[in-house]
Write a structure and sequence with these properties.
The structure holds two protein chains of two kinds. By secondary structure, chain A is an all-beta fold. Chain A has no helices and 22 strands. Chain A has a 22-stranded mixed β-sheet that branches. The termini of chain A are far apart. By secondary structure, chain B is an all-alpha fold. In chain B, about 75% of the residues lie in helices and about 0% in strands. Chain B has nine helices and no strands. Chain B is elongated. The chains are: A mainly beta, B mainly alpha. At the A-B interface, strand 2, strand 5, strand 6, strand 8 and strand 9 of A face helix 4, helix 5, helix 8 and helix 9 of B.
């Protein structure tokens, strides 16, 4: 377990210079390539950039009455392995702080705010991002990507190895590839496109789900929705497909096979094998419709 | 009898990959040799049992998220007392105990739901026993409701720390899930052996637990 000596915290490197109605943030420090950075509190905009340097840079502006707490851990002579920042603002103040965080690409970044726009590029380590509202955009190939949002929209472009995205009503768009993808939403619209996915599980209550990407050989795709429409854009995929609705309908525009009535004459079922069927897709909806298209 | 069948030959025989000639010879030997006959029977039983197992048992995502959160929390720079007074007054720091409690709640919930799903899977081949399935659901639902109640109580305690706007969003999402659960539950009571229905209902249960967990963690960091 990695612990950072408390007494060795270097807080003096945190400067907050007053500007007119704002204050400037400027924190610089040598860090390890896999530094762990934690940042949360009242900010409205955060840009995270992975760079090819062994240093951390936190810049930006905060409202005059806000405070930046925390700092970079470790000793002054060795690169720091961890950092923690917290933006404290009066409860009556809306979060308006705007920050930019530059870290080594292999860093792990944990960020959390109420309503904020978080934009991340170039991180290959881990990302754990959490907002209530606003938006989260990630570009790149983080090893692990965990995103939680209430109604903030989420967009990911890249190829994380492991990815979990959870929203209440925020829409989710994933473009790229992933070995292990899990998406959960209550009413957000989910769109997955482009690359190849090995293990994918998507669950929605009322949100529509469109999956227009490939499923890796021997991979699995599972989509569950209560009342959202599920659209599987198959392309040239080789898939065994099992689709079931409890009361909804199934439309197959891929082959001539027609769905059969479901249990007790309600809903529909369709089993389809395309190509050599080395991958498997299971689509289930309670009262939403399921569409299979090219 | 000496010169027993080798382990590889026994496996190949069970897997059906021996040539016709080799297969005949191996079977003839097994008929005459009690040792090899026993080994062959055990191997076939093992293969049969293995085939009867579910083809996938996925660990719940939430469990890994919580474990990872616990690990990552221990890697954070711990500030000396007084350097972050706001953190203490506003309760932004989640304690290991809180994390552990959340993980336990989630594990219990997941175990309950796994029970529901596994029961529903086996029920698809036991349609003649719908009453048993209903009882299993009732048991699992009770555990689920207890977990929801615990998380609801936590949410009540954190009520003042959440903005009114956030609370509205949360209640709206919970109402959507509750409606879906009610519809799914009603349908399952009519068709208790419907495996797909069980899976969908379990998914909605998970959504509710997960949403409540996330909300209770909104005020922590």
């Amino acid at each position: 377990m990695m612990r950072i000596p408390v007494l060795a915290l270097i807080l003096s490197c945190t400067t907050v210079a007053p500007l007119a109605a704002q204050q400037k943030v400027d924190v610089r420090r040598a860090v390890t390539r896999d530094v762990y950075v934690r940042l949360n509190g009242a900010f409205s905009s955060l840009k995270v950039r992975g760079w090819d340097k062994d240093s951390l840079l936190l810049t930006g502006t905060l409202p005059k009455d806000a405070r930046l707490e925390g700092g970079v851990g470790g000793t002054s002579t060795a690169p720091a392995t961890g950092a923690k920042f917290y933006v404290e603002a009066p409860a009556t103040m809306n979060a308006t702080g705007s920050l930019e965080l530059y870290v080594p690409a292999g860093a792990t970044v944990w960020a959390k705010s109420g309503s904020a726009t978080i934009d991340v590029t170039g991180i290959t380590g881990g990302l754990d991002l959490n907002v209530v509202g606003g938006a989260i955009a990630v570009n790149g190939n983080p090893r692990e990507l965990n995103i939680e949002s209430m109604d903030g929209v989420v967009g990911v472009v890249g190829a994380p190895t492991w990815m979990r995205i959870k929203t209440a009503s925020g829409n989710i768009a994933v473009n790229g590839s992933c070995t292990d993808l899990g998406i959960t939403t209550v009413s957000g619209i989910v769109t997955v496109r482009d690359g190849s996915f090995e293990r994918t599980r998507i669950e929605s209550v009322t949100g529509n789900v469109t999956f227009g990407a490939g499923v890796s050989r021997a991979g699995t795709l599972l989509i569950d929705s209560h009342s959202g429409t599920i659209e599987l854009q198959i392309g040239k995929a080789s898939l065994d497909i099992e689709a079931t609705t409890i009361t909804g309908s199934i439309t197959n525009s891929v082959t001539t096979r027609r769905p059969t009535p479901g249990r007790e004459g309600r809903g529909e079922e369709l089993t389809l094998s395309l190509g050599s069927g080395e991958a498997r897709a299971t689509l289930r909806s309670f009262k939403g419709n399921i569409k299979l298209t090219r | 009898m000496t010169n027993h069948l080798t382990w590889e030959t026994l496996n190949d025989l069970v897997d059906g990959v021996l040539s016709a000639e080799a297969k005949a010879a191996a079977e003839a030997h097994a008929e005459a040799c009690a040792t090899c006959a026993t080994a062959l029977a055990e191997l076939r039983a093992t293969v049969s049992d293995a085939r009867a197992l579910p083809d996938r048992v996925s660990p719940p995502d939430e469990l890994w998220t919580d474990i990872r959160a616990t690990i990552e929390a221990s890697k954070v720079a711990h500030l000396p007392p007084g350097t972050s007074p706001g953190a203490a007054t506003r309760g932004w720091w989640v304690t290991p105990r809180q994390l552990a409690a959340a993980a336990v709640v989630l594990m219990v919930a997941t175990a309950s739901l796994t029970g529901v799903v596994m029961n529903s899977r086996s029920s698809s081949t036991m349609a003649a026993r719908p009453q048993a399935v209903t009882v299993a659901w009732q048991t699992s639902e009770k555990a689920f409701q207890e977990n929801v109640l615990q998380l609801r109580q936590q949410l009540e305690m954190l009520h003042d720390h959440l903005s009114p706007g956030t609370l509205v969003k949360v209640e709206r999402a919970l109402a959507t899930i509750d409606l879906a659960i009610a519809e799914g539950r009603e349908a399952l009571l009519r068709d208790p052996a419907n495996a797909a229905l069980s899976e969908l209902l379990a998914s909605n249960y998970r959504q509710k637990i997960e949403l409540l967990r996330r909300v209770t963690q909104l005020t922590s960091s």
